[in-house]
Write a structure and sequence with these properties.
Elements (H helix, E strand, L loop, with lengths): L13 H15 L6 H28 L8 H12 L3 H18 L3 H26 L1
């Protein structure tokens, strides 16, 4: 079956990841539930942050080994400032899923959504444990 020219294609390249991240961050920076936490990232330097996040997702989806950052310490600091509870992680996953679905369809797109949900659940649980310790 042939796809129509406007049908979404799968996530396949770093440029695709960068496009997805721009869409997601544009939405997160104006979302009433997430904007405060994401505004902190914007102040730190979104143009510096996005390539690091791109490396992360490129590693997750394509196994490049480029990501050299540390996911948890950044989220822990944001949690202390903004209370990144389960509801905010759920909202993050919804915005991510909506962003993926708006641009892409296929196995990598599905994996990006599943990985985001798993990462959000793990981070939320870890931050909850750290907060109650």
């Amino acid at each position: 079956m042939l796809r129509s020219p406007s049908a979404p294609t799968d996530l396949a390249t770093r440029a695709d990841i960068d496009r997805l991240l721009r869409r997601f961050y544009d939405r997160a920076l104006t979302d009433p539930d997430l904007e405060a936490a994401f505004a902190t990232l914007a102040v730190v330097g979104l143009d510096e942050h996005l390539p690091v996040v791109g490396d992360f997702w490129e590693q997750v989806l394509f196994g490049t080994g480029r990501y050299r950052g540390r996911l948890v310490p950044v989220r822990t600091a944001l949690h202390r400032q903004h209370g990144l509870g389960a509801a905010r992680f759920d909202r993050w996953v919804r915005l991510w899923t909506d962003s993926v679905d708006a641009l892409f369809a296929g196995a990598n797109a599905d994996r990006a959504k599943a990985k985001a949900a798993a990462i959000a659940a793990a981070l939320s649980a870890q931050l909850d444990r750290a907060s109650s310790a």
